[in-house]
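does this look right to u?? S-adenosylmethionine version
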Amino acid sequence: MLPMSTHPIPAPDDTPELLDRRVGPYGEVALRRRGPHFEVIANGTFLMDTSDGRSERLLISAALDALDGARGAHVLIGGLGVGFSLAEAAQDRRPGRITVVERERAIIDWHTGADAPLAPFAGQGHGDPRAEIVHADLMDHLRTTEDRYDALCLDIDNGPDWTVTDSNDSLYSETGLDLLERTLGDGGVLAVWSAAHSPAFEARLRARFARIEVIEVPVHVERGVPDVVYLSSRG
Ligand SMILES: C[S@@+](CC[C@H](N)C(=O)[O-])C[C@H]1O[C@@H](n2cnc3c(N)ncnc32)[C@H](O)[C@@H]1O
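got this back:
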């Protein structure tokens, strides 16, 4: 890992600067700096940057708002990314527990320590006694956990139709939805982030959940399509 504490001055032409790259079980993960922003590239896919964060925050706030009696709620966030969703959960008094599941050690490292480049984007999340980061693949975690979550807030890909690795496809399939339903507590809410509408995924949600809300969040990119948050609950 390169020394993050040096925070080199960005190139005047805004060329991205590679700060770190690691090769792990799910391909290469890289952290780049472009001007004042950081970018995460995973397995050759641009995952996200630190320039906005509204839809990643809404993933959490909308799920909590949809819960009947959200106080004390156990919220699962999958995955950590740059930390916007964790920041949103931590600044809200309603969650009683916040479990963040992240499979990339590199991402966790970029949040850890005094000069960690991504830590500021997680707000108060890293010092919050309610929050815990679990280093695991989300599907493995869902298969093995005995916890039942009030809110499952998932943002591990660019969406159901644009996954970072093939192994993530199953999360959005009937098998993945079975697992998510099993892990969702009574009265719980499933929230799934996507960079675009996914009609096939929405149809799968509608076939098994009584209430579905599809929330669009406009993006700042010229001609960009809105981000989408799918909120689902049984009643
Ligand atoms: C788009 S980012 C998350 C954005 C996050 N909502 C935020 O506010 O920054 C996706 C994250 O999910 C992680 N991830 C991808 N697949 C995963 C999986 N199967 N299990 C756990 N984490 C995963 C990636 O390493 C990355 O950190």
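The longest helix spans residues 54-66. idk if thats expected tbh
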